[in-house]
Design goal:
- There is one protein chain.
- The protein is an alpha+beta fold.
- It has a single domain, classed as CBS-domain, CATH 3.10.580.
- The strands form 2 sheets. The protein has a 3-stranded antiparallel sheet with strand order 1-6-5.
- It binds adenosine monophosphate (AMP).
- The site of adenosine monophosphate (AMP) has 14 residues, from strand 3, strand 6 and helix 5.
- Adenosine monophosphate binds next to strand 3, strand 6 and helix 5.
Amino acid sequence: MVSSINDRRRAVLQTPISEHMISAEKVAHVQAGNYAGHALLVLTKSGYSAIPVLDSSFRLKGLISIGMITDAILGLERIEYERLDSIEVDSIMDGNLPEVYVHDPFEKGLDLLVNHTFLCVTEEDGTFAGILTRRVMLKEFKKYIYTTP
Ligand code: AMP
């Protein structure tokens, strides 16, 4: 019994990330050339703290968060809201993301999600495919911990 549960756990760790991700069409995003004001609007309306930044060919460029936007408009004495519509997202985003591909094993996602709230997943050519979130990862684990084969 124990070994067959372990076999199932091992098997799920080897499944491709594409089987577990939230697909691109359901993911809120902004374009690299959008202004910070637009990104702030999307972030606030969607309720997410960070969202992917894509180029016009749907390729992943980075991540933008509310914190990055406020940091960019922080003046010496006040927050300079008027700058929201002159700063482009790609000049303030985090473009240093771990490379995660649709065919990578779920196990790679598990390792990376220790330090990231969510991961952006791409096709081999960099086209954005979706995200893998901690929530999905935890739900998956709950399923395999509590269900018997
Ligand atoms: P969760 O694990 O569901 O709390 O999601 C973690 C983070 O992933 C959120 O704070 C967002 O930054 C991002 N995220 C989750 N779902 C979406 C989505 N549909 N669109 C954009 N970002 C998302």
